[in-house]
Amino acid sequence: MFSATEAAVFEEMDRKNDERPIHLDGTTWEMFELFLEHTFGRARTGQYTIEELANFLHFCDMYQCSHTRKFVVSRIQSTCYHFHPAQLINLAIQYNTSALFPFAFKRLVNTPITQLTAQHRELLGNDIFTTLVYVQAALEEHHRIVAAKEPKILMHTSDCQDPVGCNEDWHAIWWNGMARFLLDRRNSQPYCEAVKCFKDMQFGHVSGGCKELMFKIIGEGAAFNHADRFVDEACSRLAEKLIFESSLV
Question: Lowest mean pLDDT: which of 71-80, 123-132, 216-225, 233-242?
């Protein structure tokens, strides 16, 4: 029996020595380096590429590394402006990370369709691209409605000495200001930016009190908030349909 044992040849197992390392199937060297970098706190100089971050998420999902996955998501969020929204949306869907989706989708809504390449469309997929087209069309129609009809000054303040001139100038300045900021196809502005630009204009016979009152109404008005709620709802429906939240996050 003992002689048989001595004669037996045992296959050398992984991890016994440096010549027989542990093999992690499906894991690249770069992917594992990212994991070691985070786990042992080695400082990283420079920016992660979108490919590195995708590989990192893939590694976390393969080996159920919840803590590291949260670190990767936080790094993406802190540097999200370095990446195109189509890239972020693709990451969010591919790795079921809903935390990345709302910000990326809202940035995408503010990106003209003409600036999206065939590669961007491929990253987005048909559901998101189709929704994007409908959302942008609806927002453009809403812009036209808001631009064409200014909020009325229903009651003038005590410092207004010329109510007729105040009304006329408010109407003219709205059309030449807000309407232009919202509808200018060369450089259209979202609502919040349009209001900021509008405030810097000269208001003619509009009294200071009436101007202050109207901007308070604009700030609280449902006309502007409606567009934000519409985008939020479209975003939520897409996320619910396309993203199955990982148990790691």
Answer: 216-225
SS (H, E, C) the chain: CHHHHHHCCCCCCCCCCCCCCCCCCCCCHHHHHHHHHHHCCCCCCCCCCHHHHHHHHHHHHHCCCHHHHHHHHHHHHHCHHHCCHHHHHHHHHHCCCHHHHHHHHHHHHCCCHHHCCHHHHHHHHHHHHHHHHHHHHHHHHHHHHHHHCCCCCCCCCCCCCCHHHHHHHHHHHHHHCHHHHHHCCCCCCCHHHHHHHHHCCCCCCCCHHHHHHHHHHHHHCHHHHHHHHHHHHHHHHHHHHHCCCCCCC
Contact call for residues 20 and 14 (beta carbons, < 8 A)? yes
Which residue did the predictor score with more confidence, 228 or 32? 228
User: What is this structure's pTM?
Assistant: 0.72
101-109 and 118-148 helices cross at what angle (nearest 10)?
70
The three-class DSSP label of residue 239 is: helix
Q: Which two tokens stand for residue 60?
A: 């976390």
Angle between helix 101-109 and helix 222-242 axes, rounded to 10 deg: 130
* Res 183: pLDDT: 87
10 pLDDT tier (thresholds 50, 70, 90):
very low
pLDDT at 237: 94
Q: What are the CA-CA distances from residue 162 to residues 31, 210, 217 (Å)? A: 70, 11, 21
